UniProtKB/TrEMBL annotation:
Lineage: superkingdom: Eukaryota
GO CC terms of this entry: peroxisomal matrix
Record keywords, A-Z: Hydrolase
Gene that this sequence comes from: Acot8
SUPFAM superfamilies recorded: Thioesterase/thiol ester dehydrase-isomerase
The name this protein goes by in its record: ACOT8 thioesterase
Ranges where the Acyl-CoA thioesterase 2 C-terminal domain occurs: 117-219
Length: 231
């Protein structure tokens, strides 16, 4: 998209029922679609059929370092290769409106394959408050895309990324939540191949309630020559 050009949104009433309604949205710039979305809405309904997975047992966010603190720790290593130092400085300079505390941060100095799973405590920076739940859903959608597809690369850390971008992103909202409160983001990648990767995620409230489920498929292209040590 072009941030300097207004976006025209076309909304199609795909289906309107008593309990469920579907809307298809197309965002257009310069006469071409740049984004398509299908949203399903449901009236609140009670049901005895209820279950969920169990939230992973992890340390609370108060006991963990932020992403910025971890990067600063890595930068203090005098043996860090210069190009990786530049990359970490670039990440640190980004103005990301999310507080992130990795539960199991990967060792950036090790290129050994790792299990394609990640856990983060995440929340929006600043105060959002008890506003319309749709605002918190929009913020959660932004948060859910951050570092999500990278989970599929953990077993392949010896390769340098040439190109990586999401193809589609789906979300299911299960319970109310506050996007400006800490939530545990559980990410895993069940499959990768053919220059594509599939990732799945769950956003948990601190009380153990599963609030959001996510899924994403993306393009992943890497250089065929493996990376060298970062030290």
């Amino acid at each position: 998209g072009d941030p300097k050009v207004p976006v025209l949104y076309e909304v199609e009433r795909t289906r309107t029922g008593k309990s469920f309604s579907v809307r298809t949205v197309k965002a257009i710039q310069h006469g071409k679609p740049i984004f398509t979305c299908q949203a399903s809405f449901q009236l609140s309904q009670e049901s005895p059929v209820q279950h969920q997975f169990t939230m992973p047992a992890v340390p609370p966010p108060e006991e963990l370092l932020t992403q910025e603190e971890l990067i600063q720790k890595f930068l203090q290593n005098p043996n860090l290769a210069e190009r990786y130092r530049k990359h970490l400085n670039k990440i640190q300079a980004e103005d990301v409106p999310i507080d992130i505390k990795p539960v199991n941060p990967p060792d950036i100095f090790c290129l050994e394959p790792q299990e394609p799973k990640q856990l983060f405590w995440v929340r929006a920076r600043g105060y959002i408050g008890e506003t319309d739940m749709k605002v918190h859903c929009c913020v959660a959608a932004y948060i859910s895309d951050y570092a999500f597809l990278g989970t599929a690369l953990l077993p392949h850390r010896q390769y340098r990324i040439k190109f990586m971008v999401s193809l589609d992103h789906s979300m299911w909202f299960h319970a109310s939540f506050r996007a400006d409160h800490w939530m545990l983001y559980e990410c895993e990648s069940p499959w990768a191949g053919g220059c594509r990767g599939l990732v799945q995620g769950r956003l948990w409230r601190r009380d153990g309630t599963l609030a959001v489920t996510c899924a994403q498929e993306g393009v992943i292209r890497v250089e065929q020559t493996p990376n060298q040590s970062k030290l």
